Amino acid sequence: MSISFAAENLVNQQEPFCFIIPDSITLTAWLDPSLTAHQKLISHPLGEKN
For 5-38, what is each residue's pLDDT tens digit? Predict the structure, then answer.
C-alpha cells in the first residue's frame, strides 16, 4: 500500500499529515507484553494509552 502526494502539497505543508493505522499492523500488535524489553516500547512515558 502506498500514498501519493502532489508535489505542490508537499512544498506548502500548512497542516500535519494524519493517518489512521489499523490495529493489525501497529507496532504494539507485534510486541509481546510479557517481555520487559517490549513493555518499554508499549508503555508511553506520560501514561498515554491508545
Answer: 677 666 666 666 777 888 888 877 888 888 888 8
> Hey, which bits of the chain come out as E strands?
none
What are the C-alpha distances in Å from 37 to residues 9, 31, 50? 39, 9, 19
- Give the integer Cα–Cα distance in Å for 18 and 15: 9
pTM comes to: 0.39
CA 21 – CA 17 distance, rounded (Å)? 13
Cβ-contact 1, 19 below 8 angstroms: no
Residue 42 contacts residue 31 (beta carbons within 8 Å): yes
